Write a sequence for this structure.
């Protein structure tokens, strides 16, 4: 069985290859190792192998890992990537470097309120439902552009870009990644600070190479690093 360190090395190599194919600098793409349902000890192994950006999807599981004996004191850069209910925002606002999955003005307002109360500035992304599937969370593309002004004016939080979860079919995923990139360009034309909007969180174990070709800056990989769930 491959070790976490070996898996990370293989994934990083694949990222470099995808960047070379796309004519991109690998430094433009940040790997987020998604550890949901995996024990804290494996996150510790990933950190020891040089992986400091870790993604979690469930608030309670995240809190337990963040407080675990194995990870206490380690400068892990936690990313929250799962669906975030407004009543759970208070539990992670001061513990993450970025929230990838804000999917409504209401959840953004709650994040803003909690960040202001804590005296913080929290980076976040807006989740977009690029596939149109009713089983997925996220703003519709048209809804994003019509409500953008509501996100720009909120204190204590800083919009950094967009996130999506693509369809399983790779060619459909490519179209969805391309749509997300085009939406970010449109969003920048409305933004009071367009230079802050730099991030496209898209691509997972099965399609990150395509995502890199379409402009991803943050890729979320779990299975290829930690194994099947």
């Amino acid at each position: 069985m491959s070790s976490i360190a070996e898996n990370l090395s293989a994934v990083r190599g694949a990222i470099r290859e995808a960047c070379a194919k796309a004519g991109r600098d690998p430094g433009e793409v940040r790997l987020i190792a998604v550890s949901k349902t995996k024990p804290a000890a494996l996150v510790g192994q990933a950190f020891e192998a040089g992986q400091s950006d870790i993604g979690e999807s469930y608030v309670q599981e995240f809190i337990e890992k963040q407080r675990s004996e194995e990870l206490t004191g380690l400068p892990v850069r936690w990313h929250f990537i799962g669906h975030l209910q407004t009543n759970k925002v208070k539990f992670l606002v001061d513990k993450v470097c970025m929230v990838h999955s804000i999917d409504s003005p209401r959840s953004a307002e709650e994040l803003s309120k909690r960040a202001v109360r804590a005296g913080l500035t929290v980076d976040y992304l807006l989740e977009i439902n690029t596939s149109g599937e009713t089983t997925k969370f996220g703003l519709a593309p048209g809804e994003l552009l019509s409500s953008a002004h509501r996100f720009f004016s909120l204190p204590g939080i800083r919009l950094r870009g967009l996130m999506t979860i693509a369809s399983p079919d790779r060619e459909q995923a490519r179209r969805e990644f391309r749509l997300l990139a085009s939406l970010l360009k449109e969003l920048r034309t409305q933004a009071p600070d367009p230079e802050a909007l730099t991030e496209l969180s898209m691509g997972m174990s099965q399609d990150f190479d395509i995502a890199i070709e379409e402009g991803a800056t943050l890729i979320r990989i779990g299975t290829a690093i930690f194994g099947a769930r």
